[in-house]
Known about the structure:
By secondary structure, this protein is of the alpha+beta class. Among the domains are: 2-120 and 343-377, no CATH class; 210-317, no CATH class. It contains eight helices and 26 strands. It has helices at residues 2-20, 23-26, 34-37, 85-90, 94-121, 136-147, 161-169, 179-185, and strands spanning 45-50, 70-84, 127-131, 155-159, 189-193, 196-200, 206-208, 215-216, 221-223, 229-232, 235-237, 239-240, 251-254, 258-260, 266-270, 273-274, 281-285, 287-289, 299-301, 310-312, 319-327, 331-335, 344-352, 355-364, 369-382, 388-394. The strands form seven sheets. Strands 3, 4, 5, 6, 7, 21 and 26 form a seven-stranded mixed beta sheet that branches. Strands 1, 2, 22, 23, 24 and 25 form a six-stranded antiparallel beta sheet that branches. A four-stranded mixed beta sheet has the order 15-14-19-18, with no helix packed on it. α1 (2-20) packs across α5 (94-121). 39% of the residues are buried.
Amino acid sequence: MANNFSNNLKVKMVAAAAADNMDYVKASRSYMSQAELQNKKWGREYKVYIPDPGKVVNGLVADPDAVEEVEVPIMLDNNNNSCELTAWNTLTDVEDFKEEIAKPRGVALARKTQADIVKANVFKSAQAVVASAPGFGVLSDAAAALDELAVAGEVVSFMKPEVMGKIAASGLANFIAAQEAKEIYGKNALGTYAGATQIELAVLPVLSTPADMSATISLTQVTDADSNVIGFAPITSITAGAGVTLKPGFAYKATGLKVVDGSGLQTEQDYAIITIGSDGSIPELRITIDGQGYNNPNAWVEAGTTTLTLTPLLTASKKYWVGQVRTADALAFDDYKFLDLPGSENESVASVGGVTVKMSEYGNGTTLTKLVRLDLPYAAGIVEHRGSVTVYIEKA
């Protein structure tokens, strides 16, 4: 029992160190219960659904439509760290173990996991803000873009420390102190500005643009029973121009393509088409014709539109700091628990702040050694990309 208790405490210390170093994930919400995640395995996915607000019709006559909930897949993933059992058991003093094992390995798990989640989700946005230099205007423009869509909930802004440093240098007093944010994000929270909690995040990428980013997008018309065009089939990718190699983060605008907000209201906010994969994949784009409300849309165009021409939002042959301003609820983050594996002699699981770490002991019959394996299983993803704005700041 003493050994089990000791391992439980050790694993809890690793989980605490990991949870404390995942600021991007702290601004999230759980979408699945442990009961729903039970028996889920690494590499599988679960579905989150975006509700359909329906079409609002003026006047007395109703125009009922089908409920079109949109499926968003969230993948189950995992990162692990391991060490020899001797090293795990040698340190019997709590503080020594914390400093030499729990903290460095918990931080390592956290940084890799957070970097993976950021890489997969920072470009999942329906709007973009591009600036030639760091400044308070960038922060306010990005927050305002969300305000225009009337998104609800806490808004968080993630920028590279170098970017935040340059902005703060021009007027640190502009940040409003927020004690609650300090308690959650620690020294990485600068305060609030333009209604968003401003957080430094080192793992955000820097994007280099090539000389040519040309791309095209294809539309497939959808008609009603009277052959009226009411929208277009969902679009999940764009096509690279001749000789162009796409990569995540290339952002485009299309004249006349505007955002439909989460309540189904057509806005005048420009919809940004941003690649999330080198294959030209993009967050699902569902376009309706003006006033039709087809297929739970997230974008709309005027009647008569048959084609869209993509224009890059970024300047060729430049480097950009990448940031993100989003609602906390836009990101789904759930932990799940691995099933017990054969050959594991001792297992201990601890959850802290929504982060789960599982410790297992294994013997290696080939080398006659034992190892301790630490797993951080998780499922994460942007559910509603209309709740996110990707920010590009030109790097001098």
